[in-house]
Design goal:
By secondary structure, the chain is an alpha+beta fold. Helix content is about 45%, strand content about 25%. Strand 6 and strand 7 form a beta hairpin. The relative contact order is 0.07.
């Protein structure tokens, strides 16, 4: 009985990680006959999991949304809270180290969530304003994230609108491969059908993803790791700035506030050196100002110039209207 139960749970996990499975492939993954597979599918249906079956050469099984949430150890309100929490964490980047797991969990839950609960999730999400600071609006819509993740998972072609660096909207057709999170940005690694080459796309520039359920056979890749491919592309476009700052505060306090975004070296009991890597200057300036202590910018020269411009703008913004008109 234990083997039967564990095999049934394994079957459920497989159904949740792929949109459609051929019966022979599922049986092979489970190490069971197709007859045993059919019995396990019936067990899942008896438990309330809506498993659909298609006959024929291309037939197989898939898990579809049901009339009620499958019997997970979750009440309806708990399921809604879980999805909203995952969406918030992904959009804010406030929880480090769980981003990829969050995408997988969100994809599984949304796939089987009935319409009435999806409506509640959408209502909460649409009426919630996330608080975040960064140099630009790099947030990714959770619906876009889920749509792209599902297309990657199911090897299905994806059409979307992509904003070029000059903001020109471009129509793109791709065979999606993987999602990659680097720093505070999500990237899609995909084969670009129009350019016949592997490309990476920033998800905050991607909109209107359309999945027409056209499956493809994954291509051979000229890289082993998708994250390394994205990093190499970024390095070719722009080398990040190496920032050095002297901060008049104990190193322990600065470390606790800047966290993993900076390397902090103690110089003495009241002074430390801070080093950061960034492709823009706004968020490091905001982070340093948030320390609430004096600091001196050492390098690069571009950041010192940027800070001077910000200081002039702040001085102008805080001066009386009569002074500004003089």
């Amino acid at each position: 009985m234990a083997n039967t139960s564990s095999r049934t749970l394994r079957l459920l996990s497989l159904l949740q990680t792929h949109r459609h499975w051929r019966g022979s492939d599922l049986a092979e993954r489970l190490g069971a006959s197709e007859r045993t597979l059919r019995r396990d599918v019936e067990r899942l249906r008896e438990l309330g999991y809506p498993v659909e079956a298609q006959r024929g050469v291309d037939g197989g099984y898939q898990l579809s949304p049901g009339a009620a949430l499958p019997p997970l150890v979750l009440e309806d309100d708990e399921a809604v809270a879980l999805v909203v929490g995952l969406q918030s964490a992904l959009q804010s980047g406030s929880v480090l180290g769980i981003d990829e797991s969050s995408v997988r969990a969100l994809t599984k839950i949304v796939q089987v969530m009935p319409p009435r609960l999806r409506y509640q999730v959408d209502a909460v999400a649409s009426m919630t304003v996330p608080a975040a600071w960064n140099e630009s609006n790099t947030g990714v819509d959770s619906g876009t994230l889920v749509a792209v993740a599902q297309a990657c998972r199911d090897s299905e072609r994806l059409h979307f609108v992509y904003a070029a660096p000059d903001a020109t909207p471009l129509s793109r057709r791709v065979e999606p491969y993987r999602l990659v999170l680097l720093g505070r940005r999500w990237y899609l690694v995909a084969w670009d059908l129009d350019r016949s080459d592997w490309r990476s796309f920033r998800l905050d520039r991607l909109s209107e993803p359309q999945n027409h359920k056209a499956q493809f056979v994954p291509r051979a890749k000229p890289f082993d790791d998708a994250a390394d491919f994205v990093r190499a592309g970024i390095d070719r476009l722009q080398r990040p700035y190496e920032i050095e700052v002297l901060v008049l505060a104990p190193a322990s306090i600065v470390r606790s506030q800047l966290g993993p975004w900076a390397i902090v070296d103690e110089l003495d009991a009241r002074k430390c050196r801070v080093r950061m890597t960034a492709d823009a200057f706004a968020w490091p300036i905001v982070a340093l100002l948030g320390l609430g202590v004096d600091f001196e910018l050492v390098s690069p020269a571009e950041m010192i110039e940027f800070a001077a411009i910000c200081a002039r703008r702040l001085q102008l913004a805080s001066s009386p209207a009569d002074d500004r008109s003089a």
